[in-house]
Amino acid sequence: MTDFELEALWLSARLALFTVLICLPVAMVVASWAGRRRGRGRWVLDGLLLLPLCLSPAVVGWGVLRVFGADGPAGMPLFELFGWRLHLVPDGLMLVAISMTLPLMIRMLRPAFESVDTSWVMTARTLGANRWEAWWHITAAQARPAVMSAAALGFACAWGETGASLVLAAALQANHGPDATGTVPLTILSALQTERGQHIGLRLCLISLGVALVASLLSEWSYQRWRRQALPAGARGVAS
Amino acid sequence: MIQSPVALNLELRLLQPGLDVQAQFRVAPGHVCAITGRPGSGKTALMQAAAGLLPAQGGRITLGSEVLFDHPSGVKLPPDKRRIGWVDGEGFLFGHLKVIDNLRFAWKRCAQPMRGLSLEGIIEWLQLTAVLAHWPHQLTLLQRQKVALARALLASPRALILHKPLRELPPHEHPEFLDILAGMRTRFPMPMVLVTDQMDEVVRLADEVVILHEGRVASAGSVTRILSDVSLATFLDGPNAGFVLEGKVRQHDIDWLLSEVDVAGQRVTVPAVLAGEGKPVRIKLRARDANIHLEPSQDQGVSNELRGRISQVMLAGDHGSYGAVVVELHHYLDAHDPLPAHADVMWAMLTRRSIQQMKLAPGMDCYVSFKAMAVKVSPRL
A149, A196, B187, B314: which could form a disulfide with A222 (CB 3.0–4.6 Å)? Predict the structure, then answer.
């Protein structure tokens, strides 16, 4: 395996890991909030949270460019305040990975937070736990297997994110340079375009398959644990 | 510093969907106040508001001199600061924690334990040692309820709400858990509120009763007075309606395993009760099991015959099939006994034919008879 491939793998792994680490707490808080008793019109907000999942990745990539680019509404003040400018690696890729992964994780976590037994939470309060302790020890603890599951799937999703990254790569080629390291999917794409790169592409594809397989199996195994714990005994999803 | 027990004063108004709940009562330390009434009368919501789990729209709650909730001045302590414990019939054990961790959850949050409270002591008292390493779903229902009780106590509450504590228990396990609950009043003398619609639990555990009907206090008072009232008892207990009398154990008959109880200076024979001589007991009898005579019975088989005077005759309509005859017991006092505060009341449910054939009317002296086996007797600890 060449250094080039190893670097791509390492970059993808780091990106996916950091994406999950950033998304997980945010997703838990948002899912917990969205999973509470409904207010009027809350479903509209839930729908908006789902939006990035339904959009074409090209639109997401373009959106990230417009918002965080040099003259975007977020990019400009960030540049003026911190001297920060959007690069492809790692911030650009990270931003698109987050915007694709976060909605997925929220959507996965919401049922777990919705099914938390509020009587347990209320009992914990009467036992002297304050609001935050009750959330952490009861609400979040009950959702824990689902959180594991969402983290594993989020990792796979961030690892494999291609579409929006491509848009970003094309637009930011100038300050990226054609030979710099890309993520695994980007490397596969460029490798497949050359005669020489066929076997590199194949190797990376197989590794990606392995990662995806492990992540999705881990996610489902964890989700199964949550189902057994959270669904009522007579539910269709629970084996008798 | 060990806290001393204080009384719970509660005055609340809360608006629930379709129900406006308004109630006011006081529970002395070491006393059990039963909140009862039909399902949907607002009992649970009222106590949830007292514990701070539901918002209240008005009123005031105090524990001794400490104000937990005061609507006019805006005081509103969160549930974890009110220190009102909640034992629920469904247990509500945290399923992701083992039994011992369920107990520790409460114990480590208890800043100043009340007198006689320790983790080991509670575990030993409720015999939980064997199940400490179990998961909640592995427990029997009785064990689950014991753990729920232990956990609530370990948080060292200053008042305790027992919310339908026997609802899920199979009937054969009721006596053991009732014994435990009955022992609480002396072990942990704090104000306790029992929410239930089972009159057996009220007779066994409570000192006072508050009847909630459609969100309002329909009646309140001592257990003997409320549960012996013809209309209230019928409303609450349906076919089991009857009366509750308080008495003292006079002596036990070991040969026949019977106990003699002194009620208003008269003698009542009941199946043996586990209470020492001189100890107070409560007896409950269904009104349909009581009979009324004008002359003392010649029948040797009748073991209980109390003398009294008819105070009221109520017919269920002029052409109904039955009626209730209320009898105030004669008091036979020793010279040194204090005069009773109020008369002991019994009532019997008779057919209209019997009532009219015997020409029963208020003011007549009579005898009330019943079988020893019809009596339900429970010790007052």
Answer: A149
